[in-house]
Amino acid sequence: MGLDEDALEYHRIDPPGKIEISTTKPTNTQRDLSLAYSPGVAAPCTEIDENPDDAYTYTAKGNLVGVVSNGSAVLGLGDIGAQASKPVMEGKGVLFKRFADIDVFDIELDEADPDKIVEAVKMMEPTFGGVNLEDIKAPECFTVEERLREEIDIPVFHDDQHGTAIISGAALLNAADIAGKDLEDLEIAFSGAGASAIATARFYVSLGCKKENITMCDSSGIITEERAKRGDVNEYKQQFARDVPEGDLEDAMEGADVFVGLSIGGIVSQEMIQSMASDPIVFAMANPDPEIGYEEAKDARDDTVIMATGRSDYPNQVNNVLGFPFIFRGALDVRATEINEEMKVACAEALSELARQDVPDAVVKAYGDEPIQYGPDYIIPKPVDPRVLFRVAPSIAEAAMESGAARTEIDLDEYEEELEARLGKSREMMRVVLNKAKSDPKTVALAEGENEKMIRAAYQIQEQGIALPVLIGDESDIRQTAANLGLDFDPQVADPSVGDYEDYADRLHELRSRKGITRSEAGELIERDSNYFGSVMVEQGDADALLSGLSHHYPSALRPPLQVIGTDEDVDYAAGVYLLTFKNRVIFVADATVNQDPDEEVLAEVTKQTGKLARRFNVEPRAALLSYSNFGSVDNEGTRKPRNAARMLQNDPEVDFPVDGEMQADTAVVEDILEGTYGFSDLEEPANVLVFPNLESGNIGYKLLQRLGGADAIGPMLVGMDEPVHVLQRGDEVKDIVNLAGVAVVDAQQE
């Protein structure tokens, strides 16, 4: 099937459309229903009647946006009317929810009169925390937005005008930086004089461009003062009328530094690009066909053409989804009365700055694993970059507070943590650990230090103040790679091939001489194997923790630290633990990586160590030792191991958290089963530490929970070692390395 057929099937599949309403509170019992509706609902109604601002406390208003359209200017489709535009408005709601966790009602008004549209929206003001106007044709859209901004007390934003303006404005800031040009000196030619073009030109002036340097063309040519005098252009176009001779787009582009296309495809030739100033900036944003094709524009010149389009299949897509979800997120969270110019500028500047930073692996993978680095082919962040939420929304909130648009003040540091939580429980849990790490950073040795991911992780670890990273490897290679990646940092490197590390070789020989390692072999291992080097480095106290395993099989990466560092004084066995996060709960799963067939003593030890790990995440452990048997319902050697381990732990005075078993997995995690059928259990609430009976079941269990249960996984985290060591999985992303570095620092703090 083609794209159209696929899209029709996508929208048709039951239930039709793309959105639904879901409840956020329990509705399982009669009492739940009486609280949700009659008679309990009268209490919040009374409170809101006495204080209207309490609507933000007792209802969803503070997270609800109305997407309002009459379908008179749908991108690429034109005036298709209110009902036909509904799939677009539903799609807008999907983007609001996906990228910023904002709920949406789409409102399609079968009305062309701008005054009546204004009145309709005004009547709905009590429902919403903000209004996003969409696909209303010019010039009516100007009237609707201007009046609503004046007449209602919640943020109003016309995305067709300001979205493109803000995102292309962010691109312009970086394009000018790369081209070495000042905004105030830029000569800018516009193709198109509709709502988006006029708003974009206005916004460029807010960023620092000069209005007198903007030449705007409509279908009749350059908008001149002479045309304005003749009444040939409307009042909105007149503000960009220039005192220049009349001409066409070709005349406007000659000598221009910047071309901004918001018109129709295929109207710009290579000769027109060649007539522009040196290192031209070309934003051909007509969709689906740009004013000039990407390759065509690039091939027109020998110098650098910095090119952006509205298409996702070329670099530098000007995509409004980089703006509106995050702008509204910040505005809603400070209960802003408007979205003003200061907030729009803050958005563009935040996006511009983000594009200059290292790009997460997940974003690179989403775009075909091709390198993404600040430069002519990367001047604005990618829409799937999760960091946009954490950069833009706080910038919007801060600008709203500073400009007087906010009705409530928020702590921006705490706000970023709240935003992290909106993207998932795993981010919330890691924030706890990373904050602890930042309070007292430790030195973390990174084996395989020449690996690009390790270098990027070291940069982020150092930049965020999580730890003091030391990259183990060839210093010249590491520094060259860091420079090639555009990372602005001076890495600390331990280079085994040039440093004086004879004492490391002596120590490794001392530890392993009775295991067949000669002094010569020890020297070779120190020089050539960064896992052994890093293990001795930590064992000797020259680093506080070690991360390894990025390009090795787990057992081979684990072997050196086990041989050199070993387990804790009171511990005989290490174990691998995953933290799995779901929407409303977290679970620690052990052992998923180390012990193949543990006996009862190993199971007990693993449980104790996992309980300690849970507390580093501020989680009070409740441990269940799992089996296919419930409390003796099956009695054999396999079921007796977790049963005996549970008894050992219950009788251990050092264990100060509830433990029980053996039990089946659903018994451990389903409250009704635990309290109903097995009310005698020592667990009064569902378990959050699940100890599997062997490595096979543990590994299978965590992967099923991750893939089918939708859990996010953090780990594996190694517990039970004498010094903090964590072994990465092959193919882990940079964020995984950074997260485990945070865990390692907190481990070291405990030491």
TrEMBL record:
Q: Does the keyword Metal-binding apply?
A: yes
Alphabetical list of CDD domains matching this protein: NAD_bind_2_malic_enz (cd05311)
Q: Which UniProt keywords apply?
A: Metal-binding, Multifunctional enzyme, Oxidoreductase
Where would I find the Malic enzyme N-terminal domain in this sequence?
A: 16-149
Domain Malic enzyme NAD-binding span(s) in chain numbering: 161-401
Instruction: Please list the cofactors this protein needs.
Output: Mn(2+); Mg(2+)
Which SMART domains does this UniProt record tie to the protein?
Answer: malic, Malic_M
Q: Where is the signal peptide?
A: none
GO terms (BP aspect): malate metabolic process
Gene Ontology molecular function: acyltransferase activity; malic enzyme activity; metal ion binding; NAD binding; oxidoreductase activity, acting on the CH-OH group of donors, NAD or NADP as acceptor
Protein family: In the N-terminal section; belongs to the malic enzymes family. In the C-terminal section; belongs to the phosphate acetyltransferase and butyryltransferase family.
Q: What is this protein called?
A: NADP-dependent malic enzyme
Q: Can you name the source organism?
A: Haloterrigena alkaliphila
